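Worked example 2:
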Amino acid sequence: MIELNESDSAPRIGQIVLINKGRDAGQFAVIIEQLDERFVLIADGDTRKFDSPKKKNILHLSCYDYVSTEVRESILQANRVTNSKLRWAIGNFVEEVLDVLEEGRPI
């Protein structure tokens, strides 16, 4: 079962976030680097590629308790991840969320 509550802990590499403020509001992305306690770099593999991530204030993001282990391991081992893997991780997250909602289970 997946937990979709907003996380109170520090953002983690590979964590799925929902952008709340800015031009990309309403879109999902993946945290690819934590710059300091306030800012992270995010990418979605589509409009924001891994090579040109967006710097975002964590106060402008909804961080979910869902970390893509594939993305996290890729970044920690090779210091990079493919854009297709980012798109896959976001698609996988959205698919699981939709399945939970369709079955009527609480999120």
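The radius of gyration is 13 Å. Strands lie at 15-19, 28-34, 39-43, 54-57, 61-67.
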